[in-house]
Amino acid sequence: MATQLLLLAALLLLPLAALLLAKQRGARRAKNGAQLPPGPPGLPFLGNLLLLRRSPDVEALLRRLVAQYGPVVSLRVGSSVSIFIADRRIAHAALVESGAALADRPPATRQLLRESGNTISRSSYGPVWRLLRRNLVAETLHPSRVKQFAPARAWVRRVLAEMLGREAEDAQARAQAPPPVLEALRYAMFCLLVLMCFGERLDEAAVRAVAAAQQDWLMFVAQNTSVFAFWPALTRILYRGRLRKGLAFRRRQKELFLPLIDARRARKRQLRAAAPENEKETTFEHSYVDTLLDIMLPEEGERALTDDEICNLCSEFLTAGTDTTATALQWIMAELVKNQAVQEKLYGEIKATCGGEQQEVGEEDTHRMPYLKAVVLEGLRRHPPAHFVLSHKAAEDVVAGGYLIPKGAAVNFTVAEMGWDEREWGRPKEFVPERFLAGGDGEGVDVTGSREIKMMPFGVGRRICAGLGIAMLHLEYFVANLVREFEWKEVPGDEVDFTETREFTTVMKKPLRARLVRRTTA
Question: Please, what's the b/e burial string for 109-122 (b: 16 or more CB within 10 A of its CB; e: otherwise)?
């Protein structure tokens, strides 16, 4: 019913179509003659809205459009223009060579959920974004800070190994298939990121409560908010029940986060007065929240962040470090299950580097394992957790690859398609870590994209993921230790299926189940 009302409202406004089309035609050509990228014809006023609604698989639609129109395609919804770039060279011209011109973000429809724009991923390109990003990079993701959390990573490694081992033994004792590994991976990543965020090692019930609140919010955003991109003033009325549901998820996050934030606030007050006595062993010296409590926004009268803003930034921090990492880990371990020769070659490198007596693969050890790095890079190339980076917005007219990207347009980049481009990669749909070693087509690949783009799982340019370094550390550390601890085998009758489905990230439609056998030399 709501969709019918939305279309009816659109038809009632058709008299404005002629004016809009005239305005569009006047803006289709830049001063140097560059034109908007081609795209499918649309209806007056509605543009390509009906095409998008009839195509639940946006990636499949874009593949057809790219095959028909070329590597840069434009789509319209009303007067808004969205441009999709599937060519790595044009992506480099847009994101690196054009610099700040494409570093902005489109207006977030989540403002309807009473959020401010003050998060690192969603903020407009400007002083507030620079302040928030600089704080994250310098105060929490700097190598010296990351090193402080090494004991936390070792703790989480033990938690994960114990959980996976117990599940494998229980399944064997009951002659049942083991449970999917993704749940254990997600729980482990939440244990680690909650500790880094709030500075406290929480018990299992508390971690699971935070994880559930985060997952509810992420799935709501992934499945329910796209409708608000078209006529927010109208859709917020037609879909007010959906908005209420989203606000309830946000309130639940705040209920869980605020006591943890207040505890760090109280601790900071105690530290200013005197060193706290009898501090719990589960409390860490540093946390992301500590840095947020110190921020003052100079553009807004040197005010501190509000509790709502801190909660949103904490949610962003947890999202960036848990779901994407757990998703990438599942894909990599699935490939190792399916490709036993690759797994054994990696295990051979681990034994040669660490020997048989060492209890874990240390973080410093991973720096001496080129094949481990190749396995992780190949996993990110073959199965990037996000098939698109967050949309960019053109702050001014930009010409890239001979096409006009008009001011205000939303610009999207097809991450997965670039990593599967058969013109750049041999056997692109196969899992071949050796391609990243000497002589391979991925040798010396620059995942930052500063020199060139061949794959961009973390984005590229000024909006590149701030957590690139720590993400690679976590993936290498946990992959190495999971292979050192267990031999990962396929479950008879429950073979690995690489079919994808989109949740908040692109996950395995049939979650990985693996038969885990403890290494006798571990």
Answer: bbebbebbbbbbbb
- Helix then strand count (H, E) for the chain reads 19, 12
Question: DSSP letter at 490?
Answer: E
In this structure, is residue 248 part of a structural domain?
Answer: yes
pTM of the model: 0.90
Which positions make up the binding site? Answer: 465
Residue 319 lies in a domain: yes
As for how many domains the chain has, the answer is 1
Residues 6+ positions from 174 with CB-CB distance below 8 Å: none
Q: Which helix (H) or strand (E) holds 405?
A: strand 403-405
Q: Is residue 41 part of a domain?
A: yes
44 Cβ neighbours under 8 A, 6+ residues apart: 14, 17, 18, 20, 21
Looking at residue 481, which CATH number applies to its domain? 1.10.630.10
Q: Could you tell me if residue 19 is inside a domain?
A: no
Name the amino acid, one letter, at 480: A
**CA–CA distance, 229 with 233 (Å, rounded to integer):** 10
Binding-site residues for heme, please? 465
Beta carbons within 8 Å of 435's beta carbon, 6+ residues apart: 374, 378, 425, 426, 441, 442, 443
CA dihedral (480, 204, 384, 335) in degrees, to 10, reads: 50
One-letter identity of residue 19: L
Closest CA to 33 of 410, 413, 409, 397: 397
Domain limits at 118? 29-518
Q: Which two tokens stand for residue 300?
A: 């807004």
Cα 265 off chain centre by: 29
Find where tokens 């500075």 sit. 199
Q: Which helix (H) or strand (E) holds 350?
A: helix 340-354
- Burial code (b: 16+ CB inside 10 Å, e: under 16) for 197-221 equals bbbbbbeeebbeebbebbbbbbebb
What is the distance in angstroms between the CA of the first residue and the CA of the last residue of the chain? 60
Q: Tens place of pLDDT for every residue, the chain, 522 residues?
A: 545 544 444 444 444 444 444 444 444 555 556 799 999 998 887 788 777 777 777 888 889 999 999 999 999 877 788 899 999 999 999 999 988 899 998 876 555 555 556 789 888 899 999 999 999 999 999 999 999 999 999 999 999 999 999 999 999 898 888 999 999 999 999 999 999 999 999 999 999 999 999 998 888 877 766 666 655 666 667 777 778 888 898 899 999 999 999 999 999 888 877 765 656 667 788 999 999 999 999 988 899 999 999 999 999 999 999 999 999 999 999 999 999 999 999 999 999 999 877 889 999 999 999 999 999 999 999 999 999 888 999 999 999 989 999 999 999 999 999 999 999 999 999 999 999 999 999 999 999 999 999 999 999 999 999 999 999 999 999 999 999 999 999 999 899 999 999 888 899 999 999 999 999 754
